[in-house]
Structure formats: C-alpha cells, structure tokens
Amino acid sequence: MAKIDEIAASAKQRISAAGSTAELDALETEYLGRKGALSEFLKGIGRLAPEERKDAGQRTNQVKGELEALVAVKRAGLSSGDRAAQLEREKVDITLPAIRPQHGLQHVLTNTADQIAAALIGLGFERWEGPELEHYKYNFGALNYPDEHPAMDDQDTFWVDDEHVLRTQTTAFQGHIFETRKPPFRIFTIGRCFRHEAVDRTHSHTFHQVDAFMVDEGVSMAHLKGTLGQFARLMFGDAVQVRFRPDFFPFVEPGVDYAITCIFCGGSGCPVCKKSGWIELGGAGLVHPNILESYGIDAKRYSGFAFGLGVERIPMLQYRVDDLRHFTENDLRFLKQFT
Ligand code: FA5
C-alpha cells in the first residue's frame, strides 16, 4: 500500500509541475501507459498476501482515476496556456496609429494660378486656354513684330519647324481671340511659356505667364492702371500701389513696364527691392492700333489695354522663394510647405 501511495504522490507532484504538453504526454505514458508504473504495480499484486490484494487493486484503480483526471485538467490548462502564448505572439496592437497614406497636394504654382484667375474673374475677365505649340503668326507676326525685328531677340525661341514655335509669351492668345470675337471683351489666359534661356535663379527655359487684355470703346491707360492696381491689391494686399515706366513691346502703344510698391518694406527700400521701394512685375500698354486694324476693328472707335506677367514671380515674392528652379525640381520638402 505504501508503494502505491508513493507512486501516486510523486506522479501528482510531477504532473502538476509539467511545463508543456510534451512533458505531460511523457508523464502520462510513464504512469498510466500500458507499461507504466501503475500497470507494473498491478502486475505485482499477485505476489501480495490474499487479504491485501483487494485493497491494493481498489487503491490502484482509485489512483489511476485521480491521475487521469489530473492529466486532463493539466492538459486543458497547458493548451490554454499555449493558446495564450500563440495569441501573444500574433498580437496586433490596434491602438497604434495607422500608417497614413501619402496625400498629394496642389502645386504651389497651381495655387497661384487659381488665385490669379479668381482675381481676374472678379474683375470681369473670362478665362481662355491657348496652345503651347504656336504658329509663328500668333507668337510674333500677329503681334505687330515686323519680320526680323530685334524685339524677337529678347525671346530666344524654340523653333519646332519653319512655322511653329513653343510659345514664348501667353500674349500669343490675342490673335486667336481677335479671329473669333468682336469687342467688347475682357479675356485672360494663364499658361506655360518656353524660351531658350540660360537657366538661373530667376529664369528658366519653361515658365508660366498670365496675359489679360480688354477691348472696348474708350479704353485708356487710366483703365489699365486702375485694373492693374486692383489686381495687384487682390494678390498682394490693400496697401500696394502701381508704377508705370515707359517700355517697348511691339504689340502695345504706349508700352510700359509696371512695378508695385515693395510688399516687404512698403516702399521705403529694403534688400528685396534693392532699396528702390519698387518690385517689377511685367509689361503692359494699350493694344497697338495696327493690331486692331489688322483684324478689321475700327481703331478710332475701339481701344484696348493688355498686360502680362510671370506667374513664378508671384509666389517668389509671397513666400520669399529665392530660386524658381525649386518649383519644378519636385522636392517634397519644398512642395509640402505650401498646403
Ligand atoms: C512679355 O512676355 C510680354 N508678353 C508682356 C506683355 C504683355 C507686355 C502684354 C505688354 C502687354 P517679358 O518678356 O518682359 O514680357 O516677360 C514678362 C514676364 O515673364 C517677366 O517679367 C518675367 O516675370 C516672366 N519671364 C520672362 N522670361 C522668363 C523666364 N525665362 N523665366 C521665368 N520667368 C520669365
């Protein structure tokens, strides 16, 4: 009897301490298997005194039942522990912030173009889109450039064939409008232009311009100055004033270049405006009567104004961008600043 109790005590202690199902399987075989400790003990019962056999047999069966129950409980515990370990291994921390997908954002030049368009539409102008590949006629001929005129040298041109060029100025849209519309009209266009230029901080072979023009009865330089002033104030703030200085463009007479009071110093002079108090923006003037007449418009009755400027120039001023190449280099560190 003492022997079976010893076996039972050691089996219970070892089964309770088993750390894995594999260890438990081995203990189950060791004690409860066909050749296990209990079977061996039962085999020896025949050698006991007859009066002890019955008790020993009953006690062995009792121990067998207890050990089987203990193994079952332990197995359930271990396998739930295994599941817990598996869950721990496969755990996904859903409280971690998700990896955000990259969102594109509108390019700073598109933002500027939208701002320009909103200002000009507010001033009563219609938007028009023109081709980037232009017939020579629209880029130069119809704009009153005499053949071989040196003014064309200012706009070093990419020729595609003898008759077609990549437009050097959005002013090229005027001919398309004159061919299809009769005054009065107020129209503008914003688009890409190309010049065969040495690239530096303020010049590129590819850049954008906005051109606007209006033709009606009695349009004068005063209308031009008022419109440009209002346009500049919408773009740069209420305090801005406009200055005209004579300049030459074959398609306007008189022609001017125009500047705004420096938006950084208000006109008192600073490094940005090179102490002049003014920042040049573009060219303007009254539509040349030769152009009106060439499209059959009576230049005694009708007159018009036109102005153009570089789009890159605007965010360069607004955000103090020192090199226009940043706009096209696609460096996200630069572009992400303009949300
Ligand atoms: C013209 O292109 C005229 N068509 C403007 C005009 C329109 C005058 C209507 C009169 C009436 P200009 O060549 O100066 O003018 O160019 C105008 C603006 O375009 C410049 O002030 C500058 O801001 C921009 N620009 C010209 N060339 C480049 C370039 N290579 N890179 C970046 N911007 C340029």
Describe this structure in words.
With 339 residues, the protein is an alpha+beta fold. The chain is built from eleven helices and nine strands. The chain has helices at residues 2-17, 21-32, 37-43, 50-89, 108-122, 136-139, 173-180, 221-236, 289-294, 313-318, 332-335; strands at 126-127, 133-135, 164-166, 185-194, 206-217, 242-246, 252-261, 278-287, 302-310. The strands form two sheets. Strands 1-4-5-9-8-7-6 form a seven-stranded mixed sheet, sandwiched between helices. It has a two-stranded antiparallel ribbon with strand order 2-3. The chain is rod-shaped. The two termini are 88 Å apart. The model has no long low-confidence stretch (mean pLDDT 91). Bound molecules: adenosine-5'-[phenylalaninyl-phosphate]. The site of adenosine-5'-[phenylalaninyl-phosphate] has 23 residues, from β5, β8 and β9.
Defining key terms:
two-stranded antiparallel ribbon; rod-shaped; alpha+beta; 9 strands; 339 residues
Strand content: 15-25%
Shape: rod-shaped
What is bound: which ligands? adenosine-5'-[phenylalaninyl-phosphate]
Strand arrangement, largest sheet?
1-4-5-9-8-7-6
What is the N-to-C order of secondary-structure elements (H for helix, E for strand)? HHHHHEEHEHEEHEEEHEHH
Give a quick account of the main beta sheet: strands, pairing sense, barrel closure. Answer: 7 strands, mixed
Number of helices: 11
